[in-house]
Design brief:
Layout lengths: L6 E3 L9 E3 L10 E5 L19 E6 L9 H10 L7 E3 L11 E3 L1 E4 L45 E3 L5 E2 L4 H15 L8 E2 L3 E5 L2 E7 L3 H6 L4 E9 L10 E9 L5 E8 L7 H9 L4 H5 L15 H15 L1
Parallel strand pairs: 3-4, 3-7, 4-5, 8-10
Antiparallel strand pairs: 1-6, 2-7, 8-9, 11-12, 12-15, 13-14, 14-15
């Protein structure tokens, strides 16, 4: 196959990503490199891409947040890409030195985003975290009659109560609908965000919600207690189950559930909605433990992995 001109891929642009493709014949690229981002990090990121043809010669992944067990997910990324030994570099964190430019026949990067908030209302609207447009609980900006919603705007965080910027699809859609109702004469709050997100790396699923980084929890005024448990996804005698890692974070003084993550191969991602609901409702870890979740052997053991984690974390919080 004729070699195509190599190109250098640098993550740039309003959304923080760039896709570069050289003219490659039907056989697929001879060299392809992927820069991957992980939703397990507190900052948002995008999943990586695995090509149908041609090996990925180099892969990098942003590290999971401290206290969050993400090794299973990273192991699946290591196993799922065709990379020579020692050529899969993991642990590139936010705020660290930028990686060296990647040179390849074709490359894709998904390493987060930046809000396209420049020039809003001729630059007169205020900005908040991440440079996003600052708004109130109904999406109003600092300029009369100007509203903002979606990936360009902040929202109130469900745990901290502060303005935050977590660009995700549901929150954007919900805020836009709320603003439409408000503008039409029926005020509707845009709601809060918990940063709930899921991803899939080959057969491994992962989800996260709330404050999963103990350092960030401390910055918000909490005293975080973190516990991780591994439990079966179904009753032990029922086929199809697998180990599921659940990490929960709670405040030592109040017992408030601050956030958590779930990693596994058997419907692990959808379980994060249990935690998201608890976080949004301001539940304590004890209240989560006492939640009446459904049980049947094909779907869950008597004690769902989420309840097992809540029980363990409650013991740590109350015994501290």
């Amino acid at each position: 196959m004729p070699r195509s001109p190599s190109r250098t891929l640098k993550p740039t642009g309003a959304q923080g990503t760039q896709r570069a493709e050289a003219g490659v014949e039907d056989g697929g690229p001879e060299r392809e490199e992927a820069l991957l981002g992980s939703l397990l990090k507190d900052a948002p990121g995008n999943g990586g891409h695995s090509p149908a043809r041609g090996p990925i010669k180099h892969a990098q992944s942003l590290k999971p947040a401290p206290g969050v067990r993400g090794s299973g997910l990273l192991d699946r990324l290591r196993e799922g890409v065709d990379a020579p030994a020692g050529n899969v570099a993991l642990g590139v964190g936010y705020g660290g030195p930028p990686p060296a430019p990647l040179v390849q026949d074709r490359g894709r990067a998904g390493v987060g985003a930046r809000p396209a908030a420049e020039g809003g209302a001729e630059g007169r609207v205020g900005t908040g975290p991440g440079g996003a447009i600052g708004v109130d609980g109904h999406g109003r900006t600092g300029v009369e009659g100007v509203y903002a919603a979606g990936d360009c705007a902040t929202m109130e965080h469900a745990v901290t109560g502060d303005q935050d910027w977590v660009p995700l699809g549901l929150t954007a859609n919900r805020a836009g609908r709320a603003i439409g109702s408000t503008v039409a004469g029926t005020p509707e709050p845009v709601g809060t965000i918990a940063g709930t997100g899921v991803l899939k790396a080959f057969d491994c699923e992962a989800g996260r919600t709330g404050l999963t980084d103990p350092d960030r929890a401390r910055e918000a005024g909490f005293d975080p207690v973190v516990e991780t448990v591994t439990a079966g996804s179904r009753s032990g005698y029922y086929p199809g189950g697998s180990a599921t890692d659940v990490t929960l974070v709670a405040d030592r003084e109040s017992g408030l559930l601050l956030g958590g993550s779930i990693v596994g191969t058997d419907r692990a991602a959808i379980r994060i909605d249990i935690l998201a609901t608890a976080v949004e409702q301001g539940a304590t870890v004890g209240e989560l433990e006492r939640t009446d979740l459904a049980y049947a052997p094909p779907f869950s053991p008597v004690w769902d992995p989420v309840l097992v984690a809540a029980k363990v974390l409650r013991g740590s919080v109350e015994g501290a």
